[in-house]
Amino acid sequence: MILKKEQINRYMRHIIMPEIGGKGQKKLLESAVYIYGESVELLSPLIFYLAASGIVRMFCCFENDDGYDELFHRIRDFNDEVIIELIDEQEFINHKHTDKLGNTGFILNIFSGDLCLLKKIINKIDFSPMIISIHEKWKIILQTFTNMDDLKLFAGILSDKSINEETDRTFPKNLNAVAASVSGSLCSIEAVKLCLNIGEAQKKPLYFDIMSMEINSSENKCDYYINKLYDNNHEITSDDAKKLSACKILIVGAGGLGSPAAFSLAMVGVGTIGIIDYDTVEISNLNRQILHSVSRIGMSKVESAKIFLNNVNPHTEIIAYNMPLNSDNVTELIKDYDVVISGVDNISARYLINDACYFAKKPMIEAGVLRFNGINTTIIPDEGHCYRCIYMNAAGSGLSCAETGTLGPVPGIMGFMEAAEAIKLITGKGETLKNKLLMFDALNFELDIFTVNKNPDCSLCGKNPDIKVVEHHEFICENKNDNNK
């Protein structure tokens, strides 16, 4: 047997994908990653998704290691196979082709932080492969280097840059967590691809401005993208942070999508987060559902989520609804919330949430994942398309991740993007995905945004709608054995 029984159960959603399989999962478990970054808090999403994927040997150098002991216990509870150790800068720079414990499996290096920190160490590095992710407020530049020539060229570009190291004091520090979280899930995906040699590595710089939704990876213009890091379009201020602390956001589903959405919203200080789910934690959830842990297997997901989120931010009120969502209670549940985030995995549930939000005039943020692909959109009643405009006559629940699998960090980036969309809606800043559809192909690392037109023949929001009330749906958010949520 390639893997132990518990490993098979934990990573089943990976193993059933032919691109990974049992042998690929074993290779991930035998790999190691050296991580260099700013702080425990900002790197925790990356560390959780690496552990969720099965890359369990991690050697971390933090510029600020406050909170490491707490992270150590949380990550070990999430996956007790994880070996995580603190190292200093010299150990990060000097390591070569074996990890600190002498193992010779695949060794990967990740930098995730701001430009000033990267410039501090880039010329000291003489190893590859390396994933470099620079995040500044809402912006990310990510590039993968598989040889030293390209890495040295990049280092030369940085050496010629004059960087303003002054911190913008109007930007709330906790909001750095949004870009750091998206960066962490992207880096985790790249790590899996590099380890298993699947898909296309991001050898050109990917530039992603989460606030303006500007995405560019077609040109090798790293110096141009670096300059754009310091543009201050759509700036969020401390006043906007106060709006977030006063708002209430409901997340439907505490699984693969709801976990990262709730994690990010708690990190940035949203005042109230409601979570509804009627499932319990299973070991097969833990390749992607980072709110949960081994010690909470059998516990209701909403209570498990509440424990995790209270630890992340005790000032955020977490309201747990351990119940199925259906046409009898959906209107009452959503009425007191400012935004609804959908983290469910079947068509009936999506129709129900969409219809209820339409009649209640509540903005809804929708995402979906399958295998290596994800989609995301924002729906604002009477201002653009609804879910039925996109999927007008879909029947049944379609394929699920229980049948086809999904790479754990893929719902991570979709859930973090749902959180980012909610923040933009609450603050009124930036460009949302209203009338747009974001599509993510993790294997080829493509992020594309397409225009979505409102359908005049839509049965809910069209010119002559057939649906006048929230229709009855059975067994919503009660998928005991189908946990792509």
TrEMBL record:
Gene3D superfamilies: NAD(P)-binding Rossmann-like Domain (3.40.50.720). The keyword Transmembrane helix does not apply. Pfam families: ThiF. Residues 235-459 form the THIF-type NAD/FAD binding fold domain. GO terms for molecular function: nucleotidyltransferase activity; sulfotransferase activity; thiosulfate-cyanide sulfurtransferase activity; ubiquitin-like modifier activating enzyme activity. It comes from the Bacteria. GO terms for cellular component: cytosol. Belongs to the HesA/MoeB/ThiF family. This is Molybdopterin/thiamine biosynthesis adenylyltransferase. It comes from Sedimentibacter saalensis.
